[in-house]
Amino acid sequence: MKTIRFYSIAIVSYFIVTMACYAKGIAPTMELDLDLKKDEVVRATISAAKDSQNIGTTKNLTLRWTLYRNEGLVVLVRYDNYPYQFILYKDYKLNSWTLNLLDSQGVNRSPNQPQLRITFVGIDDPFNDEKTIAHLRLYGYGDMDFTQN
After folding, report:
1. pTM (two decimals)
2. 14-68 confidence digits (pLDDT tens)
3. Cβ(92)–Cβ(122) below 8 Å
4. In Å, what is the CA distance from 24 to each residue of 18, 37, 126, 140?
5. How far apart are CA 149 and CA 79, in angstroms?
6. Rounded to the nearest 5°, which phi and psi values hold at 12?
7. How many contiguous H segments (helices) and E segments (strands) does the chain have?
8. How many other CB atoms are there within 10 angstroms of residue 138's CB atom?
9. Distance (Å, rounded) from C-alpha 143 to C-alpha 47?
10. Three-state SS for 86?
11. Looking at 55-101, which runs of residues are DSSP E strands?
12. pLDDT in tens, 86-134
């Protein structure tokens, strides 16, 4: 009876430790705050590699937002000449969008691939298109270099 209790405690402890390791997450290697007016374009070049021994190719990125309605921010991104359009909300599960930098089509997704995450932080004066400023935060994960032009 004592051995069964010992094994069950060991198994439960193993699962708790494993889940705590996964919940910690990966720390970003780059963080950048952007305050953008409507249709203001951010241009950047991104170089990414799977590990530090590989030489990354340089690709262009443009980012802008074009509309804020019903608490949703419409964002337009062009990365490696491929266009993306998505809506970000202030809600925790809907406030960010992630781009895999080496495989932008999303075929080979893995957590150790270099990624760029765009997060919607907030907006100032949302009912005046001329004075509206959206606050975004960019996070880079993995072996990448982000240079704003």
Report:
1. 0.77
2. 555 445 444 446 788 899 999 999 999 999 999 888 765 566 678 999 999 999 9
3. no
4. 10, 34, 35, 17
5. 14
6. -65, -40
7. 1, 9
8. 20
9. 9
10. strand
11. 57-69, 72-79, 82-89, 96-100
12. 999 988 889 999 998 887 666 555 666 889 999 999 999 877 777 899 9
